[in-house]
From TrEMBL:
Belongs to the TfdA dioxygenase family. Keywords: Dioxygenase, Iron, Metal-binding, Oxidoreductase. This is TauD/TfdA-like domain-containing protein. Residues 18-355 form the TauD/TfdA-like domain. Its cofactor is Fe(2+). It comes from the Eukaryota. PANTHER family: ALPHA-KETOGLUTARATE-DEPENDENT XANTHINE DIOXYGENASE XAN1, DIOXYGENASE RV0097-RELATED. One of its GO terms (molecular function) is dioxygenase activity. It holds the Pfam family TauD.
C-alpha cells in the first residue's frame, strides 16, 4: 500500500484549467513500487503533478523517477546536441557531471553545486528570442511567455514521456503581468519566474470540428537540427511559434543532415491511459505540414499560420496554469500531453537554481489512429 494522496490543484476563479494535481505522502528519494503506481496513474490523468518539500532529493533520485516512466530510455532528451554552440538551448543549461541526464537551469551566479563550479545561470528573457520586446522601463512589471514548447530534440531522438523540474533556490515573490501583445488584449497575472503549462487535450477540444479533423489527419515535419535552424529567426509575441522573415539558417549551413533523423509526427498524440487526443506541436520547430491527401505544404509562413490557428485558442488566459514555485517543489509533467513555457524576468542578483531532467524516449508517441502510428513507424 502507498500512502500517496492525490489532490486536484486549486485554481483561480476565472480559470478553466482541468489538469494538475499535487501528491503528498511520498518521498522521491525513497519511492516504493506502490507509490509509483499511484504517481503513474495520476500523471496520465492530471498531466502536471506537484510534490512539495523534495529539496533533499538527489539528482540520481530525480533521474530514477523520470526514467521509471520509460525504463528502456537512458540518455538526456536532447542527447549531446546541446553541445552545439549555435543551438538556442546551449546557453540555458548546465549538465550535472555525475548525472548527465539532469541539467541545472536558473539565474545568477552559483559558486558550487553538485560538482559544477562557478556557474553563471541565465533565465531566458523574451528580448533575446522575440521579434519585439517589452520596453525596459516596463520590464519589472510586465513579461511574456518566452517559448511554448515540448521538451524534445525533434531530430533523431523520440520526445521524452515526462520531464521533472526541481526548485532548489527560488528568489522572493513579486508578481508580473504576462502579456500576449498580439492585439487581443489578453494578459495574465503570474508569479515571478513561473513555469506556465497548457493542456494539449484542452487545445484539441477548443478546435472547430473542421480543425479537429485536420489535427487528426495531418502531420507536422520538423526542421533538421531544429534548435540551430531556428537560431536566426525570432518568435511571435505570444511565444507560440516564429515570425516568418526568412531568417532561419539555410539547410546547407546546418551540420550534416541525416534524412532518417528528420521527424514527421502526428499533430494529435493519444494519451496511453485515457485515450484523449492532445494537440502536441512544437510550434517554433515546425517546417512543413503533410496533409491527409498527400499534399505537403512547404510555404513556411502558411505552415506557421495554420499551426498557430490550431494552438492559439489553447493558450487563452483561463487555460494557463502558472505554477507558483516554492523551494523544494518537484513538478513532474506529461511532456506528451502539455506544452510549457518559461516566463518572467529576473534581476542579475536574483539567484534561482532549478534541476531539470528528461530522457529521450524509447518509443514515439501514439498517434490519433493506428494508421497514423504505422506512418510514423515507416
Ligand atoms: Fe522545457
Amino acid at each position: 500500500m502507498s500512502s500517496a494522496v492525490v489532490t486536484r490543484l486549486p485554481v483561480p476563479e476565472y480559470s478553466k484549467i482541468d489538469f494538475g494535481a499535487s501528491i503528498s505522502g511520498v518521498d522521491i528519494e525513497n519511492l516504493t513500487d506502490a507509490d509509483f503506481d499511484v504517481i503513474r496513474s495520476a500523471l496520465f490523468t492530471h498531466q502536471v503533478i506537484v510534490f512539495k518539500n523534495q529539496g533533499h532529493a538527489s539528482p540520481k533520485a530525480q533521474f530514477e523517477l523520470t526514467q521509471r516512466f520509460d525504463p528502456a530510455a537512458t540518455s538526456y532528451g536532447h542527447g549531446k546536441s546541446l553541445d552545439a554552440k549555435r543551438s538556442i538551448l546551449h546557453p540555458d543549461l548546465k549538465t550535472i557531471p555525475h548525472q548527465p541526464q539532469v541539467q541545472v537551469i536558473g539565474n545568477g551566479f552559483v559558486p558550487e553545486y553538485e560538482g559544477l563550479q562557478n556557474i553563471r545561470l541565465r533565465h531566458p528573457h523574451h528580448r533575446t528570442f522575440h521579434a519585439t520586446a517589452i520596453p525596459d522601463v516596463d520590464d519589472l512589471d510586465f513579461t511574456r511567455f518566452y517559448r511554448w514548447h515540448i521538451d524534445a530534440a525533434l531530430y533523431g531522438l523520440a520526445p521524452p514521456v515526462v520531464t521533472t523540474l526541481l526548485a532548489v533556490r527560488v528568489p522572493g515573490g513579486r508578481r508580473q503581468v504576462c502579456r500576449y501583445d498580439d492585439g487581443t488584449g489578453d494578459e495574465l497575472d503570474v508569479p515571478l519566474g513561473t513555469t506556465a503549462f497548457v493542456s494539449g487535450y484542452a487545445m484539441y477540444d477548443a478546435l472547430s470540428p473542421e480543425d479537429q479533423e485536420l489535427a487528426q489527419t495531418a502531420r507536422v515535419e520538423y526542421a533538421p537540427h531544429p534548435y540551430i535552424w531556428m537560431s536566426g529567426a525570432k518568435s511571435r509575441s505570444d511565444g507560440l511559434g516564429m515570425v516568418s522573415e526568412g531568417k532561419e539558417i539555410l539547410l546547407d549551413k546546418l551540420p550534416a543532415i541525416e534524412e532518417d533523423k528528420i521527424q514527421v509526427l502526428p499533430i494529435c498524440w493519444r494519451n496511453p491511459e485515457t485515450g484523449r487526443l492532445a494537440v502536441q506541436i512544437h510550434p517554433s520547430a515546425v517546417r512543413k505540414l503533410h496533409l491527409a491527401d498527400g499534399t505537403v505544404i512547404e510555404d513556411l509562413a502558411e505552415v506557421r499560420e495554420i499551426v498557430h490557428r490550431l494552438q492559439r485558442p489553447g493558450i487563452a488566459p483561463p487555460l494557463v496554469y502558472a505554477h507558483d514555485w516554492e523551494e523544494g517543489d518537484l513538478v513532474l509533467f506529461h511532456n506528451r500531453g502539455v506544452l510549457h513555457s518559461v516566463v518572467g524576468a529576473f534581476a542579475e542578483d536574483e539567484v534561482r537554481l532549478f534541476r531539470q531532467c528528461n530522457v529521450a524516449a524509447s518509443h514515439f508517441p501514439l498517434g490519433p489512429s493506428d494508421a497514423a502510428n504505422a506512418a510514423v513507424a515507416a
